[in-house]
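Collaborator request, handled under Task 6.
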Amino acid sequence: MSSPSSRPAPTLVHATNFRDLAERVRPALPLRAGLLFRSDHLGALSDDDARALRGLGLRRVLDFRGERERLSAPCALPEAQVHSLSIEPTIVQVLSDLVASGHRPTVAEVVGHMQDTYRGFVRQHTHRFAEFFGHLLESPEPTVFHCTAGKDRTGLAAALLLHALGARPEDILADYLLTNDRLRPPPLAGLGLAPEVARVLWGVQPAFLDAAWEAVRGAHGSIDQFLARGLGLGEAERKRLRALYLEN
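C-alpha cells returned to the collaborator:
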C-alpha cells in the first residue's frame, strides 16, 4: 500500500476544485490526511498538475462522469486505475433544451431543477454510491473521486462518506460549500443563461444537498438507514471504514 502524503493538497491549475477531504472536517473528525481527495475532472491536467498528483501517491480514481464526459476528457493520470461509476448528467441538457425552446430560466427555476437532480441521485443511482463505498472498503490507498465539476455527484458522495465516518452536519456542509470558493467555471458556463442564473448552475447551495437528504428520509427514514439498506453499509462496514480512514 502506498504511504499517504502528509503534505497539504496542492493547488492545481486545471482542476481547481481538487482538495483533501480532511481539509474542512479536522480536528472534529480525525480523518487521515493524504488518503481521500475530491475533485473536478482530471482530463485537462498540466504537466505540473499531474506531477503534483503523482507526488500524493494517487493510484485509485473513482469517476462519476457519464460516458460522453469521460470520452471527451480522459483521465490524465495514466498510471492510476480508473473505476467508472457512471451517473449521466441531466441538468445541462434540461437547461439547454429550455433555452433552445426560447425559455429563459429564472434563478428559482434552476434551483428547482438542481434539487430534482439531487433527488434523482438518490432515487436512480443508489447503486453507484454503493459501488463507491465498495471500492473504499477494499483498501485505504490514496484515492481521488470526481465528476466533471466536482460539485454535485462528487458533493453528495463526499457528504455520504463524511456522514458514514461520523462527521458533524455542519462540517459536512462546510466541505460541500467550499466548492463555491474553489471551482472555476468553464468559459462557456452560461449556456445562454443570465449571469445570475449561470452562477446557480455552477455553484452549490444547502438547498441542493437538502433535497437529497429529503429523498433519503422519504425512502429510508434516515441517512443511517439509507447507508445500511441502500448502500450496504451496516455497522461492521462502517467500523471498517473508520478503521481504514480515521486516525487511531
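The cover message to the collaborator said: "The two ends are 18 Å apart (CA to CA). Residues 107-124 form the longest helix (18 residues). Please let us know whether this matches your experimental observations."
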